[in-house]
Amino acid sequence: ALALAAATEPFCRDAAREQAVERAAGFVPDAYVSNNISLTKKRARRSCEQAKQQECTCKNRRRHVIAAHNDLRSMHRLLRHTTRRIAQQQRRTITVLRTSDDVRTWRSKASGTVGLVPTMGALHEGHAALAQRAAAENDCSIASVFVNPTQFAPTDDLDQYPRALERDLETLEEAGVDACFAPRTPDELYAEGVDGGFRVIPPADVETRAEASARPGHFAGVCTVVAKLWNLARPDRSYFGQKDALQCAVLRRLHADLCFPGEMIVCDTQRADDGLALSSRN
Question: Is the pTM for the entire model greater than 0.70?
């Protein structure tokens, strides 16, 4: 009997388990089952929506990270460029003068002879040759970079005239020039405005010669600004290029007639390989 009971015990346990499951199932209502299914579906949908939101958030974050990275690269380039310019300015040996008083102060401290090179900027090798000669022949040298509005007619392209001050300063520094007068605005030389104040008016015979007849008022503007520069810098020598032959002739007459001190030197024209005279407009 004991052996038979031991042999049939596993089958009895399985049967009892099945009966317990059937009894438990009988106590679970159908509504409870359907509610669980509905709740599971809602949770699944909510999980999908959260996953989509997280995916969109990740994409937005990625775009923001890329934009921030590009901004940082731009700022890095700007910082590097600014640092380079500051370093160049710190290494620069040429003195940049911005006002008429700056020029007077510089001139009062300059010892020995002074050479002046008046220019309108956009310097080329011809200007560089003038600057090199001024630096070589004098104890101190100064150049001006000023686009003079009074020598432009209303129909001329004043606004289109090339301007490149930083490059001009490098050219002058390489040539050995000590200082550069570069007014920020025309008001620095024309206190009453470009249409007011006194002017140097050339004789009538000058205004009818060659290009002067086609450019009324041009040489009055040239003579006025050069006279101002001569008065401010008080050079022992001033240097001009022979390319502007009529301008040199007019300025020689101005220098002599108004008894300006010092010497006016006209230098040979510098030409390109094809023989064309170098010019800021070429």
Answer: no
Spell out the residues 6+ positions from residue 246 whose beta carbon is closer than 8 angstroms to its own.
209, 210, 211, 212
Q: What pLDDT shows up at residue 67?
A: 80
Going along 60-139, which residue ranges are E strands?
Answer: 95-97, 114-119
Sheet containing strand 114-119, strands side by side: 95-97, 179-181, 140-145, 114-119, 237-241, 263-267
Residue written as token pair 């230098």 = 267
- Burial grade of 189 (CB within 10 A; 0-12, 13-18, 19 or more): buried
Half-sphere exposure of 26 toward its Cβ, with a 13 Å CA cutoff? 6
Q: How many CB atoms lie within 10 A of CB 78?
A: 10
Q: Kindly list the catalytic residues.
A: 127
Residue 90 contacts by C-beta under 8 Å, 6 or more apart in sequence? Answer: none
